[in-house]
Amino acid sequence: MMHIAILTGAGTSAESGLGTFRDKDGLWTQYDLNDVATPDGFARDPALVQGFYNARRANCISAAPNAAHTALARLELQSDHDITLITQNIDDLHERAGSPDVIHMHGELMRALCARCDARWDAPPVMDADDPCPHCGHNATRPDVVWFGEIPYHMDRILEQVRAADLFVAIGTSAEVYPAAGLVEIAQGETLEINLEPSTRAHVFDSRRIGPATQTVPAWVAELTGA
C-alpha cells in the first residue's frame, strides 16, 4: 500500500467544460482579474464580483464530472492505497464523482463566506451584493474562494500530506501558481506530472504522462489498481 498525494488543477476539469485562466475567449478573458479576483476588487464593486461568480457557478452546475474525476474517485474508494486528494479547483466535480475527502486549497464556489464574521454556508445559485450574512446580518457575503493576495486554505495539512507521501502526483496544473507550484519541491517520495502538455516545471518531476486528463488519468489509475 502506498500513500499517494494528488494535486489537481484546472486541466482536470477543462474537459467538463470549465474554462481555465489561459483559455482564449473564455470567461476569465472577459474580465480584469484585479476587478473580480482580489479583495480590493470586491471592495470596489461587489456587484461585479458577485455577477462574475454567479456565471461561474451556473457553468459549474451545468457541468458533469469527467472520466478523470471518476477514475480518481475509484482510486480513493476501491484501492488499498492511502489517497490524499488536493485540488486547486473551486468546482465540486470531485465530490460529484464520488471522492469522499477533497482538500480545496483555493476554496469552494458552492460555498459562501462572510467577510465580516468569517461564517461559512452553502451558497445559493445566485448571490447578490446586498445579501445579508445569515449569522451576523451584515451585507458582507462573498464567495468562499481564495483570491489573489490571500492565503490558500489548509496549507498545514497539505504540506504534511505531501511530505509524507510515497508518491506525489500533479494532474492538469500549470505549475505556475504558488504555493501549489512548489509542492513538488517538498515531496520526499517519487513525483509524477500528468498533463495535457509538459508544464514549465515538468523537469522537476521524476516522470510524466502527457495527454488529455480523461485518457491519461484513467489509464494511470487502472495500472495502480490492476483493473
UniProtKB/TrEMBL annotation:
Catalytic reactions on record: N(6)-acetyl-L-lysyl-[protein] + NAD(+) + H2O = 2''-O-acetyl-ADP-D-ribose + nicotinamide + L-lysyl-[protein]; N(6)-succinyl-L-lysyl-[protein] + NAD(+) + H2O = 2''-O-succinyl-ADP-D-ribose + nicotinamide + L-lysyl-[protein]
Function according to Swiss-Prot or TrEMBL: NAD-dependent lysine deacetylase and desuccinylase that specifically removes acetyl and succinyl groups on target proteins. Modulates the activities of several proteins which are inactive in their acylated form.
The Deacetylase sirtuin-type domain, residue ranges: 1-227
InterPro entries reported in the protein's UniProt record: DHS-like_NAD/FAD-binding_dom (IPR029035), NAD-dep_sirtuin_deacylases (IPR050134), Sirtuin (IPR003000), Sirtuin_cat_small_dom_sf (IPR026591), Sirtuin_class_III (IPR027546), Ssirtuin_cat_dom (IPR026590)
Pfam families per UniProt: SIR2
Protein known as: NAD-dependent protein deacylase
Major location category of this protein: cytoplasm
EC number: 2.3.1.286
Active-site residue list: H106 (proton acceptor)
GO MF entries: histone deacetylase activity, NAD-dependent; NAD+ binding; protein-malonyllysine demalonylase activity; protein-succinyllysine desuccinylase activity; zinc ion binding
Source species, domain of life: Bacteria
Keyword match Transmembrane: no
Lineage of the species this protein comes from: Bacteria, Pseudomonadati, Pseudomonadota, Alphaproteobacteria, Rhodobacterales
